[in-house]
Amino acid sequence: MGGGAQRYIGVAERRARLALRQRLAGPARAGTPEEVAGSLVALHGTDPATVYLAVGARLTDPATTVTETGRALYEDRSLVRMHGMRHTVFVFPTDLTAVVHASTGLAVAARERAALLKHMATAGAPDAAWLKEVEESTLAALARRGQATAAELAQDEPRLREQFVYAAGKSYEGVHTVSTRLLRVLGVEGKVARGRPLGSWTSSQFRWAVAPEHPELDIAEAQAELLRRWLAVCGPATEADLKWWTGWRVTEVRRALAAIAAEAVTLDEGTGYVAGGDAEPVPTPDEPWAALLPGLDPTAMGWQQRDWYLTPELRPLLFDGSGNVGPSVWWNGRVVGGWARRSDGEIVWRILDAEGVGREARAAIEREAERLTGWVGTTKVTPRFRTPLEKELAAG
């Protein structure tokens, strides 16, 4: 993983890398959603609005955000929403789905199917052979329909409506429907993917579609490829960052680092890693830049150790209790505040860390707010995971 003296990469250079490679500085912005997703490796998809807001923040012409992102997701299928790292829903470039599935999905899929069979058996529900029949029938129905909701699929396969009691006698006892659990398992296994939503681009109710076919890859090779792509965008990163982002065991992280000949560098936190040949200095953006990024944005959530771009004192206001970041305001590579959209459509923001945030910065942030308002229009946008500052600003 590199020999000789380790080069030191300081905070200023890390912020410069972030600005350019995360498509946030003005000249680095992209022309299409595919370029954005390809540059970032993955867009958080747990909150559907995040995908569009993250893309719009990085497009040269944000007016095309909704139409072009919808085209990529649901017409060209050049982007796919699927489970990935840490069992989280992301949007990936379609050509990366095989890598994600092999590197992170297979292990999670095995656990999910085993858990479903265990819960069904405990509840006295039908066995694995029965579930296999339902699964095959469901996939055949989905192939015929192209896209469908769980309710529509249940018209073709009525057994999807059957229910079983989960955790009987426990405080968290509940009733699960076969369709809900089975489609989730099939999604993690890479057999189905989320299709077009029932409502607008902010809707969290999706149809299902047969997942794009992809080759089965060697797990270790897929992990090496995923790590190589991520380090090219987000490096340098510590081993702790890599383990957190991928959700892998530390042995898998180290194996992948060795496989791609990653180079060790020195960071303020200790040893970090960059992709092979990427340790040389990068230029600072010619102009200072501002950005309004959505909750769960991949830049704000990209590293576990965030002190180099986020003052720890800001976390209680900008994160929820589960560690999900809310809408954030950026100035020159660091988080300086947060923003929200009120019910009347106004974008409001607040500076929490005023160091270095003068008149130029505030004017640039206001321009970004106007830019965002321009393409979002009248659409109501409320983060799925609400944070203290966002709720306060939204309430007015």
TrEMBL record:
One Pfam match: AlkZ-like
Name of protein: Winged helix DNA-binding domain-containing protein
